[in-house]
Structure formats: C-alpha cells, structure tokens
Amino acid sequence: xxxxxxxxxxxFGSVRAVKGLTLHVKDGDMVALLGPSGCGKTTTLFxxxxxxxxxxxxxRFGDKVVNHLRPQERKIGMVFQNxxxxxxxxxxxxxxxxxxxxxxxxxxxxxxxxxxxxLVQIEHLLKRKPGELSGGQQQRVSLARALVKEPALLLLxxxxxxxxxxxxxxxxxxxxxxxxxxxxxxxFVTHDQTEAMTMADKIALMKDxxxxxxxxxxxxxxxxxxxxxxxxxxxxxINVIPVVIxxxxxxxxRDRSVVTKLGPSVSFQHQRLVLAVRPEHIAxxxxxxxDITGKVVLEEALGHEYLYTVDYxxxxxxxxxxxxxxxxxxxxxxxKLDWEKVHWFDEQEERVDVHVIEKSAIGE
Length: 364
Prior knowledge:
Layout: E1 3-12, E2 15-25, E3 30-34, H1 41-49, E4 56-61, E5 64-65, E6 76-79, H2 91-101, H3 106-119, H4 135-147, E7 153-157, H5 165-182, E8 185-190, H6 193-199, E9 202-207, E10 210-215, H7 217-222, H8 227-232, E11 239-246, E12 249-252, E13 258-262, E14 272-277, E15 282-285, E16 292-301, E17 306-312, E18 315-321, E19 332-337, E20 343-345, E21 351-352, E22 356-357, H9 359-362
Parallel strand pairs: 3-8, 3-9, 6-7, 7-8
Antiparallel strand pairs: 1-2, 1-4, 4-5, 9-10, 11-12, 11-14, 12-13, 13-22, 14-20, 15-19, 16-17, 16-19, 17-18, 20-21
Helix pairs in contact: 2-3, 2-4, 3-4
C-alpha cells in the first residue's frame, strides 16, 4: 500500500511539532523516520497510526484519505517501543487479542496466531507469560501481534531501543527479512542511523519538525544535500573544516593557511564555506605529502579498524584506517584528502559544487 503525506502539520498549542511534511512511501518499501529527539518523527508516526490527527494537510493510504479514521479503521499494525504486552495474558492470548476484539472465530484465531508465531519463531513460547520472556522474545511477541491482523501498513516506534547491542543487530536483520517476506509497507522511527542505514529502503531525515532529506541511504550518505545530513549520517561523524575563499584558494578560516587551490569557475570569492570529508576519505602520510598537516592526538584500536584523531589548527579530524599505521601520538603527519569525495556547503548549509585543483597539480 502506498502512503502519502501532503503538506502535513501538527500543532500542540504554540508548538509546531511537524511542519509542512510531504512524503511518499511506495508500496512494499520500508522507510525510516530518522532524526534527533524532538524532531517530529514519533509525532509523524502517531499521525499515520491515527493516534494524533494532523492540524492541516492530508494523509492518504492508497487513494483513500485517512485523516479522520480511527486507528482500528486504518488496517495498520503497530509495534510500540515498550512492547505494550498484557502481563497477565499468555503469549498466545497477547497475539490473539486484536482478533478477539474483531470477534473472529476460534479456529481462525488459532490458525493465524500459529502462522505468525512460526514466522517470528516463537511457537514454543505461546503458553508463557511476558514476564518469563527475554527482551528479544517480547519484541517478537509484539511484532507477531501487529502482524496477526494482516495489516497493509506496519508501523514501528523505536522497535530495537530496549535491546542490547548484539540482540539489536540480530533483530534488525530479522525484522527486515520478515518485512520483505510479507512484502508489506513498513515505516519505523529511530534515532539510530545504523538501524536506518541497514534496514530501510529510504530514509526520511527530520530536524525541528521539518524534512531535511528523503532518499536511499547510500545516496544520502554519499551526496548529502545539507550539512546537517552529512553530519547526522556516519560514525564517526564527518569532519568539518570552516574555510574562506580568497584569491582562488580555500583558506582555513582559523589561521588562513592554504587548504587547496580552486578552479577558475569558482564564484565564492570572500565567502565562507564548510569543507566536509568523511574519516575514510582521508589518508595519513608524511607531512610533506599531505594536503594539510596536523598532530596526532589519539589512536583508537577497534579490532576491525583503527581511528586516528589529528589536531589541525584547532579542529579535531578523525581518520579511519583498516590497519595500524606507523605513527604515534604527538607525531606531525600529513593528511591527504580524497577530493572527489569532499563535500562543500555554503553559509546556509546547502550543498555547493566546487572544483578543486590538488596541490600536487600546482606544485605546492
């Protein structure tokens, strides 16, 4: 089922929690509503669920406007952050509860509960109470209860936030696998960019109630349209160097040292820009071979990779390496930037295209 939000607002008193949100989720896609706390992502999910009504704008499921439909009229399944299981009921009865409310026949309830329990691998737990289950098992019960209604849209509110790291990794793969098996449209809320990047077909990144970006995860990562998008996606976060354009060069805004020479088409004279480059797109070299130089202040060995923190004129830059490098803390090093992967943003934090002439090409 396609889901469309058209210029949707949600106001709570004087607070405009969601601002002019327009979004199209294609049938069968899994979409992440991603952003920091207070960005409006949960409010958006609750409007889709029918818990909140939009102050203005239109929400469509397929061709049908659903603004005024109650949750039970929307053909949705909802997985809540705290699972919302009934502690006095068995797992079977928790899963069956929505069907009992709909007054389905007993044999149909049994068939559907066992079918969905098999799908989420909890058939052996049907006689237990929620208090006897682990966090991961409770999550599966909550998911089964949402799916037993055979919804056209699955909504999940921070579905993995209460799980430990190893279980979270396993469950995100399983939820994604189940969603793809069923071919169901799914929208989930998360503040965790790793969850969004690994589970979603598309990410809707929000800030202060507004949509900052919407697209496929790697498109947003590789070509962010805004500085906020570049900084929110990626761990460690993207490195940021404020520069000023002067005499066809990008100068470090702090000390006016040359970062790089720019092509003749540059039209940003005397403007301040932001140069942003991800840790994996910087290589440590000798001080004489780098585009810029800095001093190593920290080395972190993470097993599968190594992270180096370099002080560059007061800015701390992170460099990712696949293996340990022959450098020590306090060493002076060069930093070689992969200029094809460098991003530039103007004073409004919007992406701009800048042509760079590398130092090796100009003899600096």
